[in-house]
Amino acid sequence: MKMLDVPQSGSIGGVTSSHNRAGQYQRSRRAPVSPTRTPKQSVARARFGAASALWQTMPAALQNAWTAFAAGYPVVDALGQSITLTGQQYFVGIQSQLQAVGQPTNTAVPTNTTLFPIDTPVLYADGGGAFFVSVNSVNVGDFNKVSCSPVLSNGVSFNKQFSQFAMLNSINLTLDISVGYADQYGAPVAGKKIFVAFVDVNSSGMNGNQQILQTAVLPAPVAAAPVATNPVTGTLVSTGPGAGTDQVTLFGETAMPGVFTTVSDVAQVAGVATFAAVQTGVRYYTRVGTGIPFGIASNVISLT
Question: How far is it, in rounded angstroms, from Cα 290 to Cα 304?
Answer without folding.
Answer: 30
